[in-house]
Amino acid sequence: MNRTQTHGGTGASLTGPAPSGEPSGPAVNESLNTAEMRRILSSSFIGSAIEYYDFILYATAASLVFGHVFFADLGAGFALFASFATLAVGYVARPLGGVVFGHFGDKLGRKKMLVLSMLIMGVGTTLIGVLPTTAQIGIAAPIALVLLRICQGIAVGGEWGGAALMALEHAPKAKRGFATSFASAGGPAGAIMATLVVSAVSALTGENFLTWGWRIPFLLSAVLIAVGLVIRLKVSETPSFQRLEAVNDKRRMPILEVLRDHPRAVVLALLAAMSFYACQGLFTVWGVSLAVENGVDRSGVLNWKAAGAIVTLLVTFWAARMSDRIGRNRMLLIGGVVGVVLAYPLIALLNNGTLWGFAVAIVVGNGVVQGLLYGPIGAFVAEQFPTSVRYTGASLSYQGASTLGAGFSPMIATGLVLAAGGSIGLVAAFFAAVMVAGMVAVRLTKETSKIDLG
Description:
It holds the Pfam family MFS_1. Residues 40-450 form the Major facilitator superfamily (MFS) profile domain. Its main location: membrane. Keywords: Cell membrane, Membrane, Transmembrane, Transmembrane helix, Transport. It is a multi-pass membrane protein. By secondary structure, the protein is an all-alpha fold. It has one domain (36-443): MFS general substrate transporter like domains (Growth Hormone, Chain: A, Up-down Bundle). 76% of the residues lie in helices and 2% in strands. The chain is built from 18 helices and two strands. It has a two-stranded antiparallel sheet with strand order 1-2. Helix 6 packs antiparallel against helix 7 (176-205) and helix 12 packs antiparallel against helix 13. Residues 1-29 have low confidence and may be disordered.
C-alpha cells in the first residue's frame, strides 16, 4: 500500500510502503455511527469521566477540605498552600504514569492498560475516603494522603493516552478530532460529577461536612469504578495496534525511541497542551478556593463550577468537530488569542468576592477558553507520534503539560498573590504568558489533521 505520512510535527513525508512499525492493513471504520464505534466512544467517554471524577474530586477537596483536615496546625494561608502541594504531587506523578503505561501500551496493547489504570485509580480514591485525619494518627495522615495521591496521578497518567488512542485509532481520518474528544470530554464530565456530588453532600451534611461528610464522594468511587470496568472489558483493541503487533519487536524501549527520535514533538505538544491545563488549574482549583475565602457561598461556587464544566463539555465537542474541518492548529490559536485577551478581566472577576463574578469567570474561562483549547488538543498531541510510540509520546507530552499547567498553577497563583501583597495582576500576567507560549508552540508545528496514522 502506498501512502504519504507525516509525523512529529516536522513536515517530513514518507512515501511508499508502510515504514517499519507502521504496517499496512485494512482501513478503520469509515463512520462513527456503527455499533462498534458507538461502543468504543462511549467506553472512552464514560471510562475517562469516572477516572477524572476521582482525580478532580481530590482537587475539589484540596480547595475546601484538606487544609482543615490534614494541615489545620499550619494556619489558614499555609494550610491551603500545603493542600495545593499535595494536589501538585498527583500532577507530578502523571508523566510517570504516562511513561509506564505508555511503554506497556505500545508493547502489550491499549485495552489492557486502560483496565489496569482504572483499578489503580479506584483503589487509591476509595482508600482516601477511609484515611484517618492528622488529629487521629499525626504526621502519618498527610504522608498517606500524598502516597495515595501519587497512585491517583500514576493511574490518570495512563488513562488519557489509552482512552484517546482507542478512539483515535478506530476512527476514520476525517473524524479523528471529534472521536478523540470523547476521551478528552471525560475530564469535564468527571468534573461535573465530582462537583455536584460534593455540593449535594455538603448541603446534606452541613456542619458535619468537614468531619465525615467529605468522605462520601470518595467512597462512591468504588461503585463507579466497577461500572467502568464492565464497560471497558467489552471493547476491542485498536486496528493500528493489531497491525503493529504482527511485526512488533518486544525488545524495543518506546520511551527511549521517543526521547531519541521525537524530542521536538514532545516539547511542542507539551507547551501547546499546557495552556488549557492552566485554565483548569487557575479557574477550577485556585479560583474556587479564592471565591470561598472571599466569602462567596460554597454551594453556589460548586454549582457554578459544575455549570462551567457543562459549558466546557459542549464547547469541547464543537471545537473538536471544527478542528476536523479547519485544522487543529487554527482552533488552538483561536483559543489562545481569546485567553490572552480575557486574562485580566477573568482573573479580576474571580477576585471580586461575588457569586456573579465567579459565575462569569468560571463559565467563560473554564467553559469557553478551556473548551476551545480542549477540543482539538487530544488529536493534536496524539497525531505528533507514529503508532509504535504513540501511547508513550502522547502520554509523556500531555501528562507533562498537566504537571506544569494544572498541577503547579494553583501554587504559583497563591505564591504570586502573596508576593504582590494581595494583588492579582501577576496571576493574570502568568495566565497570559502560558497562553502565548502555547500559541508559539502551535505555530512551530505542522498541521496534522490530514495525515494517515497507519
